Amino acid sequence: MTSKEKLIYNTYLSTNKRINNKPYKFRKNFDNFEDEKYIYVNRLSSFFKKFENIDMYEFFEAPYFVYGEKYFDLKFYCTQKAIKSYSMYHDRFLLNNPDSEQTIYKLKNSLKFIQDYCKDKNLEIKDYITFKEQTYNVFLKHLKERRINFFILFCFPFEKEIKGMDKETRSMFNENLNNVNYLRTKLYTSNKCKLIINHIKNKLK
User: Fold this and answer.
1) Burial annotation 152-176 (CB, 10 A radius, 16+ → b, else e)
2) Where does the chain have alpha helices with state H?
3) For the chain, what is the domain count?
4) What tens digit of pLDDT does each residue of 47-70 get?
5) Are 26 and 86 in a shared domain?
6) Please, are residues 102 and 108 in contact by the beta-carbon 8 Å criterion?
7) What burial letters (b/e) apply to 100-138, b meaning 16+ CB within 10 Å?
8) What pLDDT is stored for residue 43 in this prediction?
9) Which of 94, 110, 133 finishes a domain?
Protein backbone atom coordinates (compact mmCIF):
# COMPACT_ATOMS: atom_id res chain seq x y z
CA MET A 1 0.00 0.00 0.00
CA THR A 2 1.10 3.52 -0.68
CA SER A 3 1.47 6.06 2.13
CA LYS A 4 -1.59 7.85 0.71
CA GLU A 5 -3.68 4.69 0.89
CA LYS A 6 -2.58 4.06 4.47
CA LEU A 7 -3.59 7.61 5.37
CA ILE A 8 -6.99 7.13 3.73
CA TYR A 9 -7.69 3.97 5.70
CA ASN A 10 -6.53 5.43 9.00
CA THR A 11 -8.59 8.58 8.44
CA TYR A 12 -11.64 6.45 7.65
CA LEU A 13 -11.08 4.30 10.74
CA SER A 14 -10.35 7.16 13.15
CA THR A 15 -13.41 9.11 11.95
CA ASN A 16 -15.75 6.25 12.74
CA LYS A 17 -14.24 5.73 16.19
CA ARG A 18 -14.17 9.45 17.01
CA ILE A 19 -17.78 10.04 15.94
CA ASN A 20 -18.90 7.15 18.14
CA ASN A 21 -16.70 8.27 21.08
CA LYS A 22 -14.54 5.15 20.96
CA PRO A 23 -10.77 4.94 21.42
CA TYR A 24 -8.67 4.17 18.36
CA LYS A 25 -5.12 3.62 17.24
CA PHE A 26 -3.72 4.26 13.81
CA ARG A 27 -2.91 1.07 12.00
CA LYS A 28 0.80 0.78 11.29
CA ASN A 29 1.19 -2.73 9.90
CA PHE A 30 -0.57 -3.27 6.56
CA ASP A 31 1.21 -6.49 5.57
CA ASN A 32 -1.95 -8.61 5.78
CA PHE A 33 -4.46 -5.97 4.81
CA GLU A 34 -7.69 -7.52 3.52
CA ASP A 35 -7.99 -7.61 -0.29
CA GLU A 36 -11.68 -6.64 -0.21
CA LYS A 37 -10.97 -3.51 1.80
CA TYR A 38 -7.99 -2.61 -0.35
CA ILE A 39 -10.19 -2.48 -3.46
CA TYR A 40 -12.18 0.37 -1.93
CA VAL A 41 -9.14 2.13 -0.45
CA ASN A 42 -7.53 2.08 -3.88
CA ARG A 43 -10.69 3.53 -5.48
CA LEU A 44 -10.80 6.25 -2.87
CA SER A 45 -7.15 7.07 -3.51
CA SER A 46 -7.96 7.63 -7.20
CA PHE A 47 -11.02 9.66 -6.22
CA PHE A 48 -9.08 12.02 -3.93
CA LYS A 49 -6.37 12.38 -6.55
CA LYS A 50 -8.94 13.40 -9.15
CA PHE A 51 -10.82 15.76 -6.84
CA GLU A 52 -8.05 17.45 -4.88
CA ASN A 53 -10.45 20.10 -3.56
CA ILE A 54 -12.30 17.52 -1.46
CA ASP A 55 -11.17 17.44 2.14
CA MET A 56 -10.62 13.80 3.13
CA TYR A 57 -11.40 14.40 6.81
CA GLU A 58 -14.69 16.13 5.97
CA PHE A 59 -15.60 13.54 3.33
CA PHE A 60 -15.45 10.69 5.84
CA GLU A 61 -17.21 12.74 8.51
CA ALA A 62 -20.07 14.08 6.37
CA PRO A 63 -22.53 11.15 6.24
CA TYR A 64 -22.63 10.81 10.03
CA PHE A 65 -24.08 14.31 10.29
CA VAL A 66 -26.24 14.14 7.17
CA TYR A 67 -27.79 10.68 7.59
CA GLY A 68 -27.48 10.27 11.35
CA GLU A 69 -26.24 6.68 11.27
CA LYS A 70 -23.45 5.22 13.41
CA TYR A 71 -21.48 3.24 10.84
CA PHE A 72 -20.55 3.46 7.16
CA ASP A 73 -18.28 0.89 5.54
CA LEU A 74 -15.57 1.60 3.00
CA LYS A 75 -17.81 0.47 0.17
CA PHE A 76 -20.30 3.23 1.00
CA TYR A 77 -17.67 5.91 0.44
CA CYS A 78 -17.26 4.74 -3.15
CA THR A 79 -20.90 5.55 -3.96
CA GLN A 80 -22.74 8.60 -5.28
CA LYS A 81 -24.62 8.74 -1.98
CA ALA A 82 -21.34 9.48 -0.19
CA ILE A 83 -20.53 12.28 -2.63
CA LYS A 84 -24.03 13.67 -2.15
CA SER A 85 -23.60 13.61 1.63
CA TYR A 86 -20.42 15.70 1.26
CA SER A 87 -22.39 18.35 -0.65
CA MET A 88 -25.27 18.27 1.84
CA TYR A 89 -22.85 18.49 4.75
CA HIS A 90 -21.37 21.73 3.41
CA ASP A 91 -24.48 23.32 1.95
CA ARG A 92 -26.96 22.41 4.67
CA PHE A 93 -25.64 20.92 7.91
CA LEU A 94 -22.74 23.34 8.46
CA LEU A 95 -24.83 26.36 7.55
CA ASN A 96 -27.80 25.35 9.68
CA ASN A 97 -25.49 24.78 12.65
CA PRO A 98 -23.15 27.80 12.72
CA ASP A 99 -21.91 27.15 16.27
CA SER A 100 -21.18 23.47 15.79
CA GLU A 101 -17.63 22.19 16.24
CA GLN A 102 -17.62 21.14 12.59
CA THR A 103 -18.65 24.59 11.30
CA ILE A 104 -16.10 26.42 13.46
CA TYR A 105 -13.40 24.02 12.24
CA LYS A 106 -14.34 24.69 8.61
CA LEU A 107 -14.54 28.44 9.23
CA LYS A 108 -11.00 28.54 10.58
CA ASN A 109 -9.77 26.39 7.71
CA SER A 110 -11.50 28.74 5.27
CA LEU A 111 -9.62 31.70 6.67
CA LYS A 112 -6.33 29.83 6.40
CA PHE A 113 -7.13 28.88 2.81
CA ILE A 114 -7.85 32.52 1.93
CA GLN A 115 -4.66 33.67 3.64
CA ASP A 116 -2.58 31.10 1.76
CA TYR A 117 -4.28 31.94 -1.53
CA CYS A 118 -3.68 35.67 -1.09
CA LYS A 119 -0.07 35.08 -0.16
CA ASP A 120 0.43 33.00 -3.27
CA LYS A 121 -1.18 35.68 -5.45
CA ASN A 122 0.54 38.56 -3.62
CA LEU A 123 -2.84 39.98 -2.60
CA GLU A 124 -4.02 41.86 0.45
CA ILE A 125 -6.64 39.74 2.19
CA LYS A 126 -9.16 42.57 1.97
CA ASP A 127 -8.86 42.42 -1.84
CA TYR A 128 -9.67 38.71 -2.01
CA ILE A 129 -13.38 39.26 -2.55
CA THR A 130 -12.89 41.43 -5.66
CA PHE A 131 -10.10 39.36 -7.22
CA LYS A 132 -11.05 37.59 -10.44
CA GLU A 133 -9.78 34.63 -12.39
CA GLN A 134 -10.98 35.04 -15.96
CA THR A 135 -14.60 36.30 -15.86
CA TYR A 136 -15.79 35.63 -12.33
CA ASN A 137 -14.65 36.50 -8.82
CA VAL A 138 -12.41 33.74 -7.52
CA PHE A 139 -14.37 33.38 -4.27
CA LEU A 140 -17.24 31.95 -6.34
CA LYS A 141 -14.98 29.19 -7.61
CA HIS A 142 -13.70 28.47 -4.11
CA LEU A 143 -17.25 28.37 -2.79
CA LYS A 144 -18.32 25.97 -5.52
CA GLU A 145 -15.37 23.70 -4.78
CA ARG A 146 -16.24 23.93 -1.06
CA ARG A 147 -12.78 25.16 -0.20
CA ILE A 148 -14.38 27.89 1.90
CA ASN A 149 -17.40 28.01 4.19
CA PHE A 150 -20.17 30.41 3.20
CA PHE A 151 -20.07 32.27 6.53
CA ILE A 152 -16.53 33.48 5.86
CA LEU A 153 -17.95 35.65 3.06
CA PHE A 154 -19.65 37.86 5.65
CA CYS A 155 -16.19 39.16 6.53
CA PHE A 156 -16.19 40.88 3.15
CA PRO A 157 -18.60 43.08 1.14
CA PHE A 158 -19.36 40.12 -1.11
CA GLU A 159 -22.98 41.11 -1.80
CA LYS A 160 -21.78 43.94 -4.01
CA GLU A 161 -20.01 41.35 -6.17
CA ILE A 162 -23.09 39.20 -6.73
CA LYS A 163 -25.65 42.00 -6.97
CA GLY A 164 -25.85 41.94 -10.75
CA MET A 165 -25.97 38.15 -11.09
CA ASP A 166 -29.15 36.38 -12.08
CA LYS A 167 -30.50 33.55 -9.98
CA GLU A 168 -29.33 30.83 -12.38
CA THR A 169 -25.75 32.08 -12.39
CA ARG A 170 -25.69 32.22 -8.60
CA SER A 171 -27.03 28.68 -8.40
CA MET A 172 -24.33 27.53 -10.80
CA PHE A 173 -21.74 28.39 -8.17
CA ASN A 174 -23.72 27.73 -4.99
CA GLU A 175 -27.46 27.63 -4.37
CA ASN A 176 -26.99 29.45 -1.07
CA LEU A 177 -26.04 32.62 -2.93
CA ASN A 178 -29.80 32.96 -3.35
CA ASN A 179 -30.33 32.55 0.41
CA VAL A 180 -28.06 35.28 1.76
CA ASN A 181 -30.70 36.87 4.03
CA TYR A 182 -31.45 33.53 5.66
CA LEU A 183 -27.77 32.81 6.26
CA ARG A 184 -27.17 36.30 7.60
CA THR A 185 -29.91 35.67 10.16
CA LYS A 186 -28.33 32.30 11.09
CA LEU A 187 -25.02 34.09 11.58
CA TYR A 188 -26.42 36.98 13.64
CA THR A 189 -28.29 34.62 15.97
CA SER A 190 -25.19 32.47 16.52
CA ASN A 191 -22.65 32.93 19.29
CA LYS A 192 -19.23 31.48 18.45
CA CYS A 193 -19.51 31.88 14.70
CA LYS A 194 -20.57 35.52 14.95
CA LEU A 195 -17.68 36.34 17.28
CA ILE A 196 -15.16 34.82 14.88
CA ILE A 197 -16.60 36.65 11.88
CA ASN A 198 -16.65 39.99 13.72
CA HIS A 199 -13.07 39.48 14.88
CA ILE A 200 -11.91 38.81 11.32
CA LYS A 201 -13.84 41.81 10.00
CA ASN A 202 -12.19 44.09 12.54
CA LYS A 203 -8.77 42.75 11.53
CA LEU A 204 -9.50 43.57 7.89
CA LYS A 205 -10.39 47.21 8.59
Assistant:
1) bbbbbebeebbeebeeeebeebbeb
2) 3-19, 35-50, 56-66, 80-88, 94-96, 101-121, 138-144, 159-162, 167-173, 180-188, 192-204
3) 2
4) 999 999 999 999 999 999 999 999
5) yes
6) no
7) bebbbebbebbbebbeebbeeeeeebeebbeeeeeebbb
8) 97
9) 94
Q: Is 136 helix (H, G, I), strand (E, B) or coil?
A: strand
Would you call 161 helix, strand, or coil by DSSP?
A: helix
Please identify, among 61, 94, 127, the residue that sits at the C-terminal boundary of a domain: 94
Q: Of 73, 68, 54, give the one whose Cα is nearest residue 16.
A: 73
79 and 29 within one domain: yes
Identify whether the C-beta of residue 82 lies closer than 8 Å to the C-beta of residue 63.
yes
Task: Determine the Cα–Cα distance for residues 40 and 169; give it in Å rounded to an integer.
Answer: 36
In contact, 41 and 17? CB cutoff 8 Å: no
Closest CA to 106 of 143, 177, 58, 36: 58
Residue 204 has what pLDDT?
83
Q: Which helix (H) or strand (E) holds 70?
A: none
Which residue ranges in the chain fall short of pLDDT 70? Answer: none
CB of 7 within 8 A of CB of 15? no
